[in-house]
Write a structure and sequence with these properties.
This protein has 485 residues and is α+β, with helices and mostly antiparallel strands. The protein contains 11 helices and 12 strands. Strand 2 and strand 3 form a beta hairpin. It is rod-shaped and about 225 Å long.
């Protein structure tokens, strides 16, 4: 069937138009209902998902804490042992080397002392062993310079407490960026140095990243100076890496998030990373100046919800089509009597009055209309029958009148012919009388009395002939007048 024909049927069919309007109304009703429902459902799912993301962030914090705490315990155990033999530098060196030999995850161990702690050592004195290409080597300096003013040493001594140092550009051991955990060394209640262990940021990232809850969700830890301590992209494990990322994502929303995170706040945000929308949940890490965050793609959180929306969209579409189809067939069936009436009305318009619509058993308006139409048809048929009978009678009467008129016309013709004949018969006597009168007028003096009497008698006889003819004419005229009356 041609599209134009289908469109014409749809536009001309009351059932189709009513079904389409009903379908549009149901579609708008469904759209409004499900939009409202899914809006609140989305908010509820988002709140629940954010709660789960915060739980993941807490687990991430615990994972980092456990990983770092393990190294803190090792460092404190070694620190206690070293403090027991601070009076013997060779024993201190033995224990430093022992820690590095037995802990492959630690890539550097140092015991740095204040100048003058050991009288036989001039200037700075540090016992430092670290790994280098698979071997353990000893060095007198850290990062190629004196340790005296380096943060891991200076901050620990000034605070006189444990201290995790921030990563520095030049703080690398065995080619890997590191952070150091430092503990003050005390001799007779006086701080005489610092004990520190170095751990690789690569190792720390791998250790924490191996426990991520999903492949698409990842976490990171950053210092207040924007240096990543943990990040799945190890190329970013360098100072001020987060600020460099601001050049990659110049949106104000990302910059606002960075400053809030580095400012020690906690919260969440929805950020677009190169077309991928993700939830970022962040908070400070413990009592430090570091911050941790979890990045979760929106699809990870809202994927099932979005799938549900697609599924519900298909269901609603199928439901609307089903409703429209049902309404079309139901309305089409209910309006079938009206189509019968329409066809019957068209036949009546063409002059066919013999096709009578059957009585309807329905009690509704359509049934009442059908029965009224059928009664109207019967009434029209009855009146037409009466009209036909009256027409036949009129035709017969008209035929009789025509015959009577023909007889009248024939009689009139005969009468006219008769009168004309009588008139013709009267011409000769009139002429005879005229001739006698003219003769008498011209020769009455010369004529004898007998001739005048004879001619008078002729005139009298001729007059009687004319009088008889006139009487007959008057008699015919009188009959004609009576017939007209």
């Amino acid at each position: 069937m041609k599209p134009k024909k289908v469109l014409y049927i749809l536009l001309s069919s009351f059932s189709a138009k009513l079904s389409m309007w009903l379908g549009m109304f149901v579609a708008m009703l469904f759209l409004a209902t499900f939009s409202l429902m899914f809006y609140y459902a989305r908010e509820a799912v988002r709140e629940e998902s954010l709660g789960k993301a915060e739980d993941v962030l807490d687990k991430f914090e615990i994972t980092i804490g456990n990983t770092l705490h393990e190294k803190e315990v090792i460092a404190k155990q070694a620190h206690w042992t070293i403090e027991q033999c601070l009076d013997d530098p060779r024993e201190v060196e033995h224990h430093v080397l022992h820690v590095l030999d037995n802990m492959p995850d630690i890539i550097g161990v140092a015991a740095a002392f204040e100048p003058g702690t050991y009288p036989d050592q001039q200037g700075d004195f540090m016992i430092y062993y670290h790994r280098n290409r698979g071997k353990i080597v000893k060095s007198n300096q850290f990062a190629g310079e004196s340790y005296m003013h380096q943060p891991w040493y200076d901050e620990t001594k000034q605070k006189d407490s444990d201290y995790w140092s921030d990563p520095k550009e030049d703080y690398r051991t065995d080619g890997e960026p590191i952070i150091s955990y430092a503990i003050p060394l005390k001799m007779k209640g006086k701080t005489v140095g610092v004990f520190a262990i170095d751990i690789s940021l690569y190792w720390l990232t791998r250790a924490v990243d191996s426990k991520r809850p999903s492949s698409t969700m990842y976490g990171s830890m950053v210092t207040k100076n924007g240096a990543f301590i943990i990040h799945p992209d190890t190329t970013l494990l360098k100072p001020r890496a987060m600020f460099r990322m601001m050049d990659m994502f110049p949106e104000n929303q990302y910059s606002y998030l960075v400053y809030k995170m580095l400012g020690g706040e906690r919260g969440h945000a929805l950020i677009d990373f190169r077309g991928n929308t993700s939830f970022v949940v962040y908070k400070p890490y413990g009592d430090t100046e570091w911050a941790i965050n979890i990045v979760c793609p929106e699809e990870e959180i809202m994927g099932h919800y979005n799938h549900l929306i697609s599924l519900m969209g298909v269901i609603v579409f199928v439901a609307i089509l089903t409703i429209v189809a049902f309404c079309f067939f139901f309305i089409h069936r209910q309006l079938n009597p009206l189509r019968v009436l329409e066809r019957s009305a068209k036949r009546m318009k063409r002059g066919h009055y013999n096709s009578i619509v059957a009585q309807s058993w329905r009690k509704d308006e359509v049934g009442s209309l059908t029965n009224s139409f059928a009664a109207m048809q019967l009434s029209i048929k009855k009146h037409l029958s009466q009209i036909d009978q009256q027409k036949e009678q009129l035709n017969q009467q008209n035929k009789a009148l025509n015959e009577a008129n023909d007889h009248i016309m024939e009689a009139e013709r005969i009468k006219i012919a008769f009168l004309q004949n009588m008139t013709d018969q009267m011409n000769e006597p009139v002429m005879e009388i005229s001739k006698i009168v003219n003769t008498l007028a011209a020769h009455h003096q010369e004529m004898e009395h007998e001739q005048i009497v004879e001619m008078s008698n002729q005139m009298d006889a001729t007059s009687r002939i004319i009088t008889n003819l006139l009487e007959r004419v008057l008699e015919v005229s009188t009959q004609k007048q009576e017939e007209k009356s």
